[in-house]
Amino acid sequence: MQIRGLLLLLALILLAATAEAGKNKKEKVKKDGSECEDWRWGPCVPNSKDCGLGYREGTCKDESKKLKCKIPCNWKKKFGADCKYKFESWGGCSAQTGVKTRSGILKKALYNAQCEEIVYVTKPCSSKIKSKSKGQSPLLPS
Q1: Contact call for residues 122 and 101 (beta carbons, < 8 A)
Q2: Local confidence pLDDT in tens for the 142 residues of the chain
């Protein structure tokens, strides 16, 4: 009878310790202590010039936060670094304008950014004429 009571008491202590450990884990999940879930994030603002490390500000009700962010220095497109697009291949060169065009369809909008569904980009046509015989050596006379 005493062994049964001792085992029951031990089981209750173990159960209470497990429940307390579970509470501590749940409390640690909240990093910032904010209960707000409807955050609105602004664009990434570089610390200097127009690319590199920077920050973005977020607001939710009367709370505000700053997050670190980075704008790649080769990313100077008008639609911003928070809008990710899947682009088609470049089209042919227009003889009238001297540029080629391609379109991109929105793949992902980061931080609830306001992005266009389809964007068009252009670049100047290459003035070089590419030969199709790359990798082939001319025949040598014997």
Answers
A1: yes
A2: 677 776 676 666 766 666 665 555 444 444 556 678 888 888 888 898 878 899 999 999 889 999 998 888 876 567 777 888 999 999 999 989 999 999 999 999 888 888 899 999 899 998 766 555 555 555 555 5
